[in-house]
Each structure stands twice: as C-alpha cells, then as structure tokens.
Design goal:
homodimer; 83 residues
Chain lengths: 83, 83
C-alpha cells in the first residue's frame, strides 16, 4: 500500500448565492483594498489515502468528495494530487 | 490593467485542533470507506485582482490573505495563480 495525499476544493456553483464571498467584498474598503472582484468562498479538504495505486486512491477521494465533502446541488468540486 | 485570478488556501496549522477534520474521519465508517487519514478541513477563496503586473496583484492577495481571509494565530495560507 502507498500513501497518496489529495486536496478537494469545494466551491459554490456559478450562479449560486455566495454570502461569504459578498462579505469579503464588503470588507475590502475597510482594508483600503481596491481592484478585487469575483470573490468565491469555499472549502479545501486535504486527506491521505492508502491504496495499491493512484487510480484506486483517486476513486476513493471522488466518492468522498461527492457524498460527504460537498453538496452536489449547489457546489462543485475538483480533486488535486498534492503528495 | 490586467485581471489575475488567484486562489487562497487556508488550513489549520499543524498541531492545531481541527474538529471538522475529526468529524469527516468519524463519518468514513458510515460510508464504508477505509484507508483515509490525516483529514484537514480549511477554506479556499478564489478572487480576481486587477493590477498592472502579477507582482502587484499577488501583493494584494497576500495582504488580504493575512489580514482578512485567515487567522495567522491558528491558520496558514498558500496563494496560487489560477488564471
């Protein structure tokens, strides 16, 4: 068995209201920051999977990402190998 | 001015308690998933910065990440260019 480390990035789907993103944009003025737009706030989950091969490990991560780590109705996710 | 898109990944520092990560690990059995460990749950923020050069845009993102998007006492962040 080999350890594979992945990150799952979960973000609100385009068109879905993102109140945290609006809150960040609303705070930019207080920090004196301009020129920032299109803020989207989501989650990042990093995890290690022990498996015989990367394909099997990635299948586990895809399963978890769709069933546990994201809400497929309003969020989309991407998976990246980080170690 | 050019638009640069970045992602800020915010994660609990090593050694800092991560209750969301523990909750994910506690749910794995219900999903029939084994071989997963080291779960860390953080945030991912994507944003667009208009600036004259990537260096200036990245400085703005670093400033925001440290002042607004993360709590430096308990979280660390990384910045990646995504577009």
């Amino acid at each position: 068995m080999t350890d594979f480390r992945f990150a799952v990035n979960v973000l609100p789907k385009p068109g879905i209201l993102d109140p945290q993103g609006r809150a960040v944009e609303g705070s930019l003025g207080h920090l004196g920051v301009s020129g920032v737009a299109g803020v989207r706030v989501g989650r990042r989950v990093e995890l290690t999977v022990s498996a015989d091969a990367e394909t099997a490990a990635r299948a586990t991560v895809d399963h978890l990402a769709g069933e546990l780590l994201s809400n497929p109705l309003i969020e989309s996710f991407t998976v990246e190998r980080i170690g």
